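TASK: fixed-backbone design
INPUT:
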């Protein structure tokens, strides 16, 4: 597996060599058009835009959450249009503590492409070290990427319901949402019974970069032993920040509950917990 993080100062040589395909993964849950509009206003040269709703997620149904995993055939088509080949280095960036970029990082690995990196600090880090932006739209390409899903990377809801303490369930949402004190997006407040909380923002700095590895390890150590960890969030996006952090700190086999809280709470018979674990 390629080391998951890329420093901003190491990006320019990759762009000049033409050996990588870079993706702008900016998005907003409050305004689905914001990411595309930001991209059109200025992006890292050569970057393609990926839409969270249509490219990095599949079609929504009554169940499955707000951001189901993409259809493998459609994801393959989109990657090929952007020139991704089986040996291409894929680079992802955004402007929100790497939430969208981490989603692409996880998806590429899930679909069998481990040569992928997240730009640490996103577009802000690129600009701060002197990188320029432009508004040019790259031409459509014809890559040979082929998505091959790895079911071992996901955890299904029914297995979580039968957990019995055999795995560590981690809620990556903000503490207030985990506790059930507020719920700005989904119709039910609270968390999956037995889950412990590691807010995704707590693993990154105010500058939008991942904390140093030893600081991340200290954060994870507060949760105790992590046995067969499964991570969820509201819809399977920001949980990918936790998953990337776990990989960086030596826990590469953590799984994603892709439907996350928005899937869990869509079933009225599923139990809901609030407050801290007793």
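OUTPUT:
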């Amino acid at each position: 597996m390629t080391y998951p993080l890329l420093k901003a100062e190491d990006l320019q040589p990759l762009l000049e060599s033409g050996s990588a395909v870079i993706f702008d993964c900016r998005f907003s849950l409050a305004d689905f058009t914001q990411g595309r509009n930001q991209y059109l206003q200025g992006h890292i040269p050569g970057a393609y835009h990926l839409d969270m709703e249509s490219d990095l997620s599949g079609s929504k149904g009554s169940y499955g959450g707000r951001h189901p995993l993409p259809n493998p055939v459609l994801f393959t088509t989109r990657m090929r249009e952007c020139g991704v080949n089986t040996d291409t280095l894929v680079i992802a960036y955004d402007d929100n503590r790497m939430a969208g970029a981490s989603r692409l990082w996880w998806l590429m690995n899930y679909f069998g492409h481990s040569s992928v990196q997240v730009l640490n600090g996103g577009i802000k880090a690129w600009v701060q070290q002197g990188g320029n932006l432009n508004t040019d739209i790259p031409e459509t390409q014809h890559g040979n990427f082929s998505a091959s899903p790895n079911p071992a990377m996901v955890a299904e809801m029914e297995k979580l319901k039968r957990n019995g303490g055999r795995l560590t369930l981690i809620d990556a949402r903000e503490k207030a949402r985990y506790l059930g004190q507020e719920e700005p997006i989904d119709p039910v407040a609270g968390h999956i019974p037995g889950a412990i909380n590691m807010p995704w923002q707590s693993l990154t700095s105010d500058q939008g970069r991942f904390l140093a590895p030893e600081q991340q390890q200290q954060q994870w150590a507060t949760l105790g032993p992590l046995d067969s960890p499964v991570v969820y969030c509201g819809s399977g996006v920001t949980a990918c920040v936790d998953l990337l952090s776990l990989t960086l700190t030596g826990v590469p086999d953590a799984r994603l509950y892709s439907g996350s809280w928005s899937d869990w709470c869509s079933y009225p018979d599923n139990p809901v917990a609030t407050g801290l674990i007793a």
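COMMENT: DSSP finds ten helices and nine strands in the chain.
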